[in-house]
Structure formats: C-alpha cells, structure tokens
Amino acid sequence: xxxxxxxxxxxxxxxxxxxxxxxxxxxxxxxxxxxxxxxxxxxxxxxxxxxxxxxxxxxxxxxxxxxxxxxxxxxxxxxxxxxxxxxxxxxxxxxxxxxxxxxxxxxxxxxxxxxxxxxxxxxxxxxxxxxxxxxxxxxxxxxxxxxxxxxxxxxxxxxxxxxxxxxxxxxxxxxxxxxxxxxxxxxxxxxxxxxxxxxxxxxxxxxxxxxxxxxxxxxxxxxxxxxxxxxxxxxxxxxxxxxxxxxxxxxxxxxxxxxxxxxxxxxxxxxxxxxxxxxxxxxxxxxxxxxxxxxxxxxxxxxxxxxxxxxxxxxxxxxxxxxxxxxxxxxxxxxxxxxxxxxxxxxxxxxxxxxxxxxxxxxxxxxxxxxxxxxxxxxxxxx
Length: 383
Ligand SMILES: Cc1cc2nc3c(=O)[nH]c(=O)nc-3n(C[C@H](O)[C@H](O)[C@H](O)COP(=O)(O)OP(=O)(O)OC[C@H]3O[C@@H](n4cnc5c(N)ncnc54)[C@H](O)[C@@H]3O)c2cc1C
Prior knowledge:
Elements: H1 5-13, H2 15-30, H3 38-44, H4 63-74, H5 78-95, H6 100-111, E1 116-119, H7 122-128, E2 136-140, H8 142-147, E3 156-166, E4 174-182, E5 189-194, E6 200-202, E7 217-227, E8 231-233, H9 236-265, H10 271-300, H11 303-306, H12 308-333, H13 345-354, H14 362-379
Parallel strand pairs: 1-4, 2-4
Antiparallel strand pairs: 2-3, 3-7, 4-5, 5-8, 6-7
The chain binds flavin-adenine dinucleotide.
Flavin-adenine dinucleotide binds at residues 86, 119-122, 131, 165-167, 208, 211, 216, 357-359, 361, 363-364, 367.
C-alpha cells in the first residue's frame, strides 16, 4: 500500500512505527492480540515524550506538537491514536498536577512505555456539566491509619465505586486517573489508581465493534486504599477547567488525523470520481487547515481556559468534518470499499462513528452551548 500525504509525517519521523501501524491497523481495530504492544511501540518512536519539558525527561516542544503526534498516528491507526491520547493525556495530568512527588514517581515509567496511563475522566467531565454524579466515593480514614501500626501522618482514604469505560488499561500494568467524591464533603479529588492496588478489579475487555486493541475495559474499586501521594488534585472542578483544553485538544488530534486520511483516500478513486468530488474535497481541506490552526493556537495560548465555548464549537465542527470526509471517502471508494481487506474504508467508517460519542459528546456540547446562549439572552450579554 502506498503512503499518502497524510501519512508522510509519521513515515518521515518514525518509519518503523508507521510501517508497524500500517501492517496492523486492521488487527488493532478488530481484535486484541496486539493490545499489549501499542504503548511500547509508541514509546520506541519517542511519541510519549513530545511536548514534555526536557528537564522532566521529555523531548521538549509544545502541546501543539503533541496534538500533531496524535493526528499523525490517527492517519495510520485510530486505535493506536486513541491509546496515545490516553497515555499522553495522563502524562499531561501529571505535568499539570501540583503533586511533584507523584509526578517524579510515575513519569519515568510512563514516558518509556513501561506503564500505561489511562484517563477515566468522562464521568468527571459529565459531572462538571451536571449530567451525572461522580461514581467513586472516598471515605476518610486518616485517623484510623495514623493511629495504626506504621501509620503515617498524611491523609488517607478508602475508595469504592467504578468506571464503566476506560481505555489503555494495559494488562501488563496501568495507572488510571479517576475523579472521586469525598463523603466528608468538599470539592472532589482526582486520584491516580494503580492496577495492583488492593481492591482494584479490571474487567475483561469490553466486547466492542471496533478499537478492540485499545485495552478498553471497566474498572471497579472495592475498599481501595489511597493516600495523599496518589492525589493528582484536591480540587477537581477548578483543575479540570485548566486541563480541559489539553485533554480536548489531544482528543481532537484524533479527528484531525482521520480527516486527513479520508481526504487523501478520495485521491485513490478513479479520475471521474475524483473530479466529481474535487470541489468538496477542496472545501473540506480548507476547513481542516483553518480548524487545525485555531485548535493548536487556542490550546497553546491558553485561550480556551476562559472561553471553553469556542473549544466546544471547534470540537463540534471537527466531528462534522470527520463525518463529511468519511462520507466522501465512501463515495469515491465505490464497491472496493465494501469488500473486506481491500481498503481501510469500512474501518474508517467505524472510527468516524466513535468521534461524536466520546466525552464530551456532541449532544452534550450542543446542549451546553444552547444553555449558555439561553443564559446570555436572559442577561442580555449575547455576543
Ligand atoms: C470504545 C470506547 C472507549 C472509551 N474510553 C473511555 C476512556 O478512556 N475514558 C473515559 O472516561 N471514558 C471512555 N469512554 C466513554 C465515552 O467517553 C463516553 O462517556 C461514553 O461513550 C458516553 O457515555 P454513555 O454511553 O454512558 O452515555 P449516556 O449517559 O447513555 O448518554 C447518551 C448520550 O447523551 C449524552 N447525555 C446524557 N445526558 C445528557 C444531558 N443531560 N445533557 C446533554 N447530553 C447528555 C451523553 O454525553 C451521551 O452522548 C469510552 C467509550 C467507548 C465507546
């Protein structure tokens, strides 16, 4: 299979990873046989260190560069890009955490791909939007543990609850970020929960229609002990507002790569098909360039911390672009796209179907924007 323009970025900077992904993209989507290899492959190509300061073990650069890496991988394999999103987003949580000891403890293993990082914060994002309550509760046991043998003087808790969906729960070892409500009251916290902590149970992989090589499962905690050393933040709502642009920016990277690849694939059709869609492809290509620039500069300049609505609108526009580009690819691919093993058309249709549902989902964002607009109308502050 020849390399398309959208694939040249990764092929140039990480040729071994690019060929591995091209050889296994279908397998990564349809079964779990290679699920343990994805994080080490991404690490060998150096992608986990992109946008991480050199003094912390990274290769420097910006969050914009990390968004580009996710997009580059998505042009080859959306499943691998989703794993990269989970891992790199967890790394970002540590970079933005005030808990330096936690960062020092976990970062080296995450950057070299020995440990997988999973982000279970959909529940927290939905909580922020008043859609659902937090699903994990913490009981403060500080007094109990500090009076027991060997007890320390730092806060400690026991947590109970679960998360129905988390990606990158690599069976060889993971740490998962989860938001936790405190029985004692106060703002919820976000903790890093280790795979081998007592009471942690990872389900079997969920029986997905695609993205099956992503180690996606449910996670249950029963009386799991956690300490201050495990806490990413003690004020989840305030911290999430600051981290959300990077979280969403990296997630949007997956859409950028998918759109690029689908638009490139329209060139693989015959001359008549190409000319029929040429104007549409040109319009979508322009939109892609403009959305890419706005996304990366907005995240880099920190604009979306105070104006999340503009980021939500970008996410919605990108999801619509994914849909339009994937549809054009189907049209130009003809019957070949409907035959197994001849192209990535069917796989990209499944991948595109995931984009609107990943949190924050399109319906969630549309409702939030509508509520905000209603509020502005009431207060006469429509812009
Ligand atoms: C393959 C896969 C991997 C995933 N990986 C992760 C992961 O790594 N980490 C993680 O945290 N999550 C993950 N998720 C969860 C995902 O991000 C979404 O949260 C989940 O798919 C949507 O939740 P639900 O199906 O329970 O939606 P439901 O709660 O059933 O809601 C259906 C839809 O309506 C929206 N909705 C519900 N109530 C409201 C409301 N009041 N106002 C507006 N909109 C509303 C929801 O956002 C959703 O789009 C994954 C999901 C899948 C399919």
